Amino acid sequence: MFKFFLKKNFCDGWDNFFFLILSNVITLAVLVGSFFALSYSGEASPYLPNLVFILCSGVLMIDLFAWGANAAKIADFRDSTFSVFFMTLKSVWKIGFAFGAFVAFVLLLARFAISYYLTLYFRDGNFIGLLVTAALGWFLLVCVIALQWFVPLYFLQENNGFAKCLKKSFIIFYDNVFFSIEVFLYNIVLFLFSCFLLMLAPGLNGITLSSTNALRLRLYKYDWIEKMAETDPSFENDRDRRNEVPWDELLAEDKESLGPRKLSSFIFPWK
């Protein structure tokens, strides 16, 4: 399944390469604006950057949320347009800002907490400080990996508000730990590659597409479990049987829709 995800995500990214670049220009403008806002706020007051960081994170996430609608369309083999981006912008700015501000707030809390407990360890030799720092580090890592599913969940499933997306993000993580880690590491590779291309491609929008593609395919597992549970109610609680997912069968339609992609199709996509 993961191998097919890599292939599909690459094909989707390549087929929408120029659209991704143009979309990332908007995201890059928000990032540059946030950088200058943080820089100037630091000169005004040593405490103001924390508030500006939360505000800028909220604005950035509004942009990523608005693009999440296009990511869901691309993942579902449909066309993406800027009209979808601007139409979605009106309806998701509240949850986008709330999620961005929430993530920024958690990061700031973790930063201050880790700094405090590390100081206890190095200054006073308090070993408890080191243990708490390690626990906070692992907790933060789990949160980051789990929350990569937040935006895709909002667009791939109906009736998902802030609380539901938050809850389901951790449910998806704990039920698919290795898969979540694999996608997270893949997204890190995409981010590092994006740095060489000035965040224009695949960029943060490309990473959003990656998470959306991954989750869309993974959700087939839960459709299959629900279908099997209709005929055998005990199936849902049987982890051994649940893990025997017939991925070839579940991905057959997507594989047919994607089709065999030859090298010439990447060089000459219009053919």
Largest sheet: none
Low-confidence stretches: none
How does the overall form come out from the CA principal axes?
globular
Oligomer: single chain
* Series of H and E elements: HHHHHHHHHHHHH
- Could you tell me the mean pLDDT? 92
Rg over CA atoms = 21 Å
Structure notes:
- This protein has 271 residues and is mainly alpha-helical.
- It is 82% helix and 0% strand.
- It contains 13 helices and no strands.
What tags apply to this protein structure?
globular, 271 residues, 82% helix, mainly alpha
How would you summarize this macromolecular structure in one to three sentences?
The protein is mostly helical and 271 residues long. It has helices spanning 2-15, 17-44, 48-75, 82-124, 127-146, 150-156, 162-175, 177-196, 203-231, 239-242, 247-250, 252-258, 263-267.
